[in-house]
Amino acid sequence: MGLFSGRKQRAEVPQDDIIDLRTRLGYVDTQLDAATVAWGRPTRCPACHAPGYLDRIDLVHNVMYQRCPDCDHRWETAESEVTTAPH
Fold first, then answer.
1. What is the dihedral of CA 9, 23, 49, 35, to 10 degrees?
2. Residues 43, 58: Cα–Cα separation, whole Å
3. Residues 5-58: pLDDT tens digits?
4. Residue 75 and residue 78: Cα distance in Å, rounded?
């Protein structure tokens, strides 16, 4: 009689029992558009549209360097692109 002598079968979880923690914790996934993009704040990934991560801001050339934690895509956004975006 061993405690670890057998493999247990994985129980199937009905789809009705799955809880979306993002909804339960009040997470709101807002879609960023040109009206909500602000200089110095991360934007959405142009490749997969996941929320981006702001790595650094070049204050000399006014460029934000960003990356996507989901797909590891990297992109740059100039301040002129954000300030001239249609509102």
1. 180
2. 16
3. 666 666 665 666 555 555 555 554 444 455 567 888 888 888 888 899 999 999
4. 10
CB environment 68-85: b (16+ within 10 A), e (fewer):
beeeeeeeebebebbeee
Cα 43 from Cα 66, distance rounded (Å) = 8
Rounded distance between C-alpha atoms, residue 79 and residue 40, angstroms? 9
Query: Under a CB-based contact definition with an 8 Å cutoff, are residues 70 and 58 in contact?
Result: no
42: Cα within 13 Å, side-chain hemisphere: 16
Strands 74-78 and 63-67, how do they pair?
antiparallel
* C-alpha dihedral, 4 to 10 to 16 to 17, nearest 10°: 10
| The model's pTM | 0.55
